[in-house]
Specification:
Number of helices: 5
Shape: globular
Helix content: 25-40%
């Protein structure tokens, strides 16, 4: 529970800075609007009407931001309460019966329930911003993928590295991000089949990848060095039939977010437009699928955050995230979130919910982006 609180605290503190800045801007805008409203007779009617409509959209955000600040304060209170309960547990261990066990147990259960409720409210949100890129390393060919395991236990900070997009079956394992950045010390794992594209993910100790020249997804367990599951993704295009706009056999893109494992691909039945499927990570069976109206070949790259698929408008030059499809509402919208494409060729872009960061392979550079999420308080 303490570890969960620490993770939650780090997330809320980073996002709270954005929230407080946005709140100041909104309140300042509201004051300016009141001044305009008081003297609107002297303003051009059309300009006044436009400003008024925009302000009506923004005003409801102010109490939402206040609620978010209150929840950030709640996280700090959780930290203090967890410390108090931990101290009581230590005392109980010394006295063995000197304290009321039932009362202590009740306090722990209550804290856990409230913590889970708070995490459910704050863990997810809508993408509002992407930071400037942080170059971690320069290595490998123009295309590839790299990642960490979002479900790795505490203390497991291994980095996984896969160079190229086809006809390769060796995965490098680095013990930590520091080792990845500063050394060439790694363990090499040989997969039973070569992979296709750059849409691989490591999830809960296994790697999931698209077998080369097929629409088969394979789950390979690193601890046993064996295939634990494989399954065909029915009707999915493969072998450069429905790739991203940069090519590279990127027909099937596997990804992970707070909700689990996903596959992004296209089918003839959906006229080459993106199909999004949530997969059972144990059986690889499709839990549910959504069909979109976005052509797969027109997408630069894509990633999932909190059940929403985000798509970039390209892979080279000026890049932005411009399309978002929500699985919660089965609706889409066009957005405009700049993405600094520092090295001018993105061949992999994936979100890690544990780090709340985007991992990218950018023209032979391994890059990280932090993301800002706007939390909708329920």
């Amino acid at each position: 529970m303490s570890q969960s609180i620490e993770v939650l605290d780090q997330r809320t503190q980073r996002d709270l800075q954005f929230v407080e800045k946005m709140e100041v801007q909104l309140k300042g805008l509201e004051n300016k609007f009141k001044q305009v409203e008081d003297g609107h007779e002297t303003n051009i009617a059309r300009q006044y009407k436009s400003i008024k409509a925009k302000m009506e959209e923004l005003r409801p955000l102010i109490p939402v931001l206040e609620a978010y600040k209150a929840d950030a304060l709640l996280v700090r209170q959780f930290k203090e309460e967890a410390a108090n309960v931990t101290e009581l547990l230590g005392t109980l261990q010394e006295q063995m019966g000197g304290l009321d066990y039932q009362e202590l147990h009740s306090r722990v259960m209550s804290l856990e329930d409230r913590l889970r409720a708070c995490m459910q409210r704050l863990a997810c949100g809508k993408l509002t911003g992407i930071s400037e890129p942080i170059t971690i390393k320069t290595s490998g060919s123009r295309f590839g993928s790299w990642m960490t395991d979002p479900l790795a236990p505490v203390g497991d900070n291994r980095v996984w590295y896969m160079d190229g997009y086809h006809n390769n079956r060796f995965v490098r394992e680095y013990q930590s991000m520091y080792d990845f950045m500063t050394t060439d010390n790694f363990t090499s794992h040989r997969l039973p089949h070569p992979w296709s594209g750059t849409g691989q993910v490591v999830y809960n100790g296994s790697i999931y990848f698209n077998k080369f020249q097929s629409h088969t997804i394979i789950k390979f367990d690193f601890s046993t060095s064996l295939i634990s599951r494989s399954r065909q993704l029915d009707f999915a295009g493969y072998n450069n039939m429905y790739h991203y706009s940069w090519g590279g056999h990127s027909d099937i893109d596997l990804m992970v977010d707070e909700g689990g494992l996903w596959a992004v691909y296209a089918t003839n039945q959906n006229a080459g437009n993106i199909v999004l499927s949530q997969l059972n990570p144990n059986t690889l069976q499709i839990i549910r699928s959504w069909t979109t109206n976005h052509p797969k070949r027109s997408a630069g790259e894509a990633f999932m955050i909190c059940g929403t698929l985000y798509v970039t408008n390209g892979y080279s030059g000026g890049t932005k995230v411009y399309y978002a499809y929500s699985t919660n509402s089965s609706t889409y919208e066009y957005i405009d979130i700049p993405l600094t494409n520092k090295y001018s060729h993105l061949s992999m872009l994936d979100y890690n919910p544990r780090d709340r960061a985007l991992y990218a392979w950018n023209n032979g550079h391994q890059v990280l982006y932090n993301v800002t999420l706007y939390h909708i308080i329920q």
